[in-house]
Amino acid sequence: MPDTTVFVKTEADHYGLPVLLINGQRYAVAADAGDATRAARKAIEENIWVCPAQWILPHLCAAARVSFDPDEDTDLINSYDDMIKKVAEGANPLLKKLLGSRHLRDLQDQIRDTCSEGGLGEILALGDSEELYFLEVFKEVRATEEGDEEKQDLIDRFMEAAFPGRKHMCNDTTITLLMQAYEGKLRAELAEAGVTGYTLKLEANKENVCGTLVLGNGRVVELPKVSRQNELTIWVSHTVLRIVRIQGAIYNVSY
Q: Which of 32, 50, 88, 211 reaches 20 to 30 Å from 120, CA-CA?
């Protein structure tokens, strides 16, 4: 049965990420790791004031070129906490100015590194009063098993709703994984078919992986373009069959 999940793109923007309603639930969507990182940095920049004093004071003191010891400077920590209680988000412009770009980056890196792998959703929840989930499409693509046509179709429809005209295979991580899978599967099937003495060269762009295979006699075989994991089985099988037929002609062997 085809998936009936309904995707509706809203007019909202969450730290640069599109917001989708998926069966009535709000999701901020990152197509790739770059989208997720940029959104997390923006969320921190706009919500510096919510950072614990023990996190931000070392960076503020470093920017002011004064020392800070969390065990000794308890009065400073208490004063900072009192200020935040009174001013809240109103302190953000001042904190951003005092930190400067360099120490703001350091704070952003610290928060990112402190969070667990799934912690970006926690960061992106900063300053949001309504319930909002965070979805990293590139991780869903990576986790999609070969041949899972239903999930692949779901991801394709999802990407079209969130990023009209933008393919889901658009970041270095997923392209690298696809290239590795392509090479591994191709070499395995060639070995099973008894094809040896070849040179394989794969290339990738933002949308697909392709390449050439040079046989032992110098014959060049163009490899088909593949843009999704679940296309590998059929294209690799067809390619290996074609190579076996070519070698059959070369060596006068009937397959």
A: 88
Q: Please answer whether residues 20 and 161 qualify as being in contact, where contact means their C-beta atoms are separated by less than 8 angstroms.
A: yes
**Helix 172-192 vs helix 232-250: crossing angle, to nearest 10:** 40
Task: List the beta bridge partners of residue 220.
Answer: 214
- b/e map of 72-88 (b: 16 or more CB within 10 Å)? ebeebeeebeebbeeee
pLDDT tens-digit series, residues 66-122: 999 989 999 999 999 999 999 988 999 999 999 998 899 888 888 877 665 555 666
CA distances (Å), origin 230, targets 170, 227, 235, 236: 16, 9, 10, 11
Q: For the chain, percent helix, then strand, then coil, each to nearest 5?
A: 55, 15, 30
Helices first, then strands: H and E counts in the chain = 9, 7
Question: Whole-angstrom Cα distance, residue 152 to residue 146?
Answer: 9
